[in-house]
Amino acid sequence: MRTIEDDAALKILADVIKIPSVNDHELTVAKYLQALLAKYDISAKIHPITGDRANLVAEIGHGKPVLAVSGHMDVVAAGDLAAWDTYPFTLVEKSGQLFGRGVTDMKAGLVALVVAMINIQQQGGPKHGTIRLLATMGEEVGEAGSAAFYQQGAMQDAAGLLIAEPSTVYGTAAEQKGSYDLKLTSKGKAVHSSTPERGYNALVPLIKLLNEANDYFETIPAGEMGPVRFNIDVLNGGDQVNSLPDLATALVNVRTIPEYDNDQVTQKLTDLIAAYNQQGADIKMTVIMNESPIATTADNRLVKLVQAIGKPYAGRDVVVASSPGITDASNLAKRQPAAFPFAVYGPGNMTQHQVNESLPNRCFMTLLQFINSCLHVFWPSNRC
């Protein structure tokens, strides 16, 4: 029996951090994990998506029930390298902290899943059923990897889903808001600013519409996950100060809730656009990303298991909350019933997407033990 101990797991994490999979190059991560799993007689298949981007799937065990576990292989850009205290693509341990791009979001969680699968396989495999690893590309922008898995039916027979996104050891999530990215394009007629009556300022109706939409969405009652968030993130229009702009665009992100979902946002914005266009505007809406909210019951089987197993590691009750951001569950848990066993639980903190992204070494080691225990205990019987 060749299980992976803490030092070896840390070396695997260092190897994966070294791969700069910044919104690309997940294929390199997938090949590394495929070779690692093969050393322990676990077959993994790479599913090419486009270019140097790919998903990876691996299984241990046999038959049903199937527990899907998932982590993404991409990371966000490191930003200003001079602002980092360490080189972001080298794992550095300092004062009990692990530093590196993706150490929290979410290569530590991904490595923890892989190591747990290897160790369970080396200890004889799952008692019942199958553990299926779904390692995704493109989670940070667009979630194309999890969308591909969903379209391929990777979740059709799944009896549960654990996503090892950063939650700390003190909290888990059974639900998450939706995320809806939109582009609004307003067309006008450019003229000299001394004679605006001869043209049409593309910015004016767009700004009015955005303000009206923002005011409206602030009146929507908050749901169990909190309020709808209508975020005007990027606004562009005009080329110079003495000319009316003939084109203006806005990029908007809406965080939706089950009580007011993506379809309702679409309908409201469609109605607003129609009203402005009837008054002479020429505004169109393009959907960039459309991920619906996911809501499962806070007492689903997997959450209860996370709480029970996690409490000794956390030293206190593991709190169930909503995930403020989206995860690949937007696709992987799509159209699942409210009682579907789903949980977000993994090593990490709130330093993701920042310079000096870090993770307490103790947290990583604790979550390695937790995930190994969780995957073992999920199979005490043949039912879910």
TrEMBL record:
One GO molecular-function entry: succinyl-diaminopimelate desuccinylase activity
Q: Which PROSITE patterns match?
A: ARGE_DAPE_CPG2_1
Q: Which reaction does it catalyse?
A: N-succinyl-(2S,6S)-2,6-diaminopimelate + H2O = (2S,6S)-2,6-diaminopimelate + succinate
Keywords (A to Z) from UniProt: Amino-acid biosynthesis, Cobalt, Diaminopimelate biosynthesis, Hydrolase, Lysine biosynthesis, Metal-binding, Zinc
Pathway terms, separated by semicolons: Amino-acid biosynthesis; L-lysine biosynthesis via DAP pathway; LL-2,6-diaminopimelate from (S)-tetrahydrodipicolinate (succinylase route): step 3/3
EC no.? 3.5.1.18
Family indicated by similarity: Belongs to the peptidase M20A family.
Official protein name in the record: Probable succinyl-diaminopimelate desuccinylase
Q: What is the lineage of its organism?
A: Bacteria, Bacillati, Bacillota, Bacilli, Lactobacillales
